[in-house]
Amino acid sequence: MTNSRALQGWEVDRVARDHIAAAGYGDQFLHRTGHSLGEEVHGNGVHLDDFETHDVRRLLPGTAVTVEPGVYFEDFGVRTEINLHVSERSATVTGPMQTEIQSLG
After folding, report:
1. Over the chain, what HEC string results?
2. Residue 74 maps to which CATH number?
């Protein structure tokens, strides 16, 4: 929450996108930052997205989202996957902490 107002999905995506671009990898960040997390993985709620769409829905207390920014090159890519539960004044990472790199190829 910022100044007692719920953040919109595009605002969260924009912060991640600007940070990655400032590090020199903006052209390699080719998808939204995250999506709503529901019982079927992709929920019907807010997405952290100012890339595929401009999601103006708010991150409301009691909802869950994924945070999964990634950068992709022609022969290599890196992406995080973190699940967050949004509460009234904070967001809590859920699930186990990843401690090693997992290759998908």
Report:
1. CECCECCEHHHHHHHHHHHHHHCCCHHHCCCCCECEEECCEECCCCCECCCCCCCCCECCCCCEEEECCEEECCCCEEECCEEEEECCCCEEEECCCCCCCCCCC
2. 3.90.230.10
